[in-house]
Every structure is written in structure tokens, then in C-alpha cells.
Design brief:
This protein has 1 helix and 13 strands. The protein is globular and about 35 Å long. The longest helix has 6 residues. Strands 1, 2, 3, 4, 5, 6, 7, 8, 9, 10, 11, 12 and 13 form a 13-stranded parallel β-sheet that branches. The chain is mainly beta. The chain has one domain.
């Protein structure tokens, strides 16, 4: 079935551009890139990229993430989190895998792999 011009691709990349400020929570089935500012929680079933000009203050929950900008709050990344050299991250991280480039700033706590799964509340653990 062909898409009409009025249909939206929910699996596309969502963009919060530089200079844009959002206050409130965002839920997305697709990927999202933040180059502006978000004050609120971000729940995404795909990949979250916080660009070098991006600033997120709130909890982020997603499958994979790459951070080059600023993030303050809890990070719950299911698979892989990559902290780039230009990033500043403050808070609690729970992830499957973590990579940190030299120069990245991270202050907080981190649980990875099996430890991240053990720290989840019982209702979130897979049986």
C-alpha cells in the first residue's frame, strides 16, 4: 500500500532543532535527535541522539543513545550508550554496554550489563 502525502512515517527520525525549547515529556516510537533544549522526560523505543548543542534535563529511556551535548537525569539505555568527548552527563546510568571517549564528563553512578538488570525493580525484570 502506497503512502499518501498526508501520512506520517512514525518510524522516522524526529528532530528538536537548535534554538527550540520544549518543556514536557516526549514519547516516540521512532528515533529522535535533540539539538535544542528539552526539560522533561524522553521515552523512545529507538535511538536517542543528543547533539553537541543539545541539552536534556530529565530522564531518558531508550534502546540506544549517543550523547555529545548535555544531559542531567537518569539514563535507562537498553543496549548501548556512547558518551562522546564533548558531552557532559550528570546522573544515574543503567545500560547494557557503555563507551566513553576521552574528554567526556560524567558524574554519577553507572550499572552495566547483568548488574543493570539486577538493579531493576522486580516488575521490570524479564523472567
Amino acid at each position: 500500500m502506497a503512502k499518501t502525502n498526508n501520512e506520517i512515517d512514525s518510524q522516522g527520525i524526529n528532530l528538536v532543532g537548535k534554538g527550540t525549547q520544549i518543556t514536557g515529556d516526549i514519547n516516540s516510537d521512532g528515533d529522535i535527535r535533540i539539538d535544542g533544549e528539552l526539560t522533561g522526560n524522553l521515552n523512545c523505543s529507538g535511538r536517542v541522539v543528543i547533539g553537541i548543542t543539545g541539552k536534556v534535563t530529565g530522564e531518558v529511556s531508550c534502546k540506544n543513545s549517543e550523547i555529545s551535548g548535555y544531559q542531567k537525569g537518569k539514563l535507562q539505555i537498553e543496549q548501548h550508550l556512547s558518551l562522546k568527548a564533548s558531552c557532559k552527563v550528570y546522573g544515574e546510568i543503567s545500560t547494557g554496554k557503555l563507551s566513553i571517549e576521552p574528554g567526556a564528563v560524567f558524574s554519577g553512578s553507572c550499572a552495566m550489563g547483568e548488574q543493570a538488570n539486577h538493579d531493576k525493580p522486580k516488575e521490570l525484570k524479564k523472567t
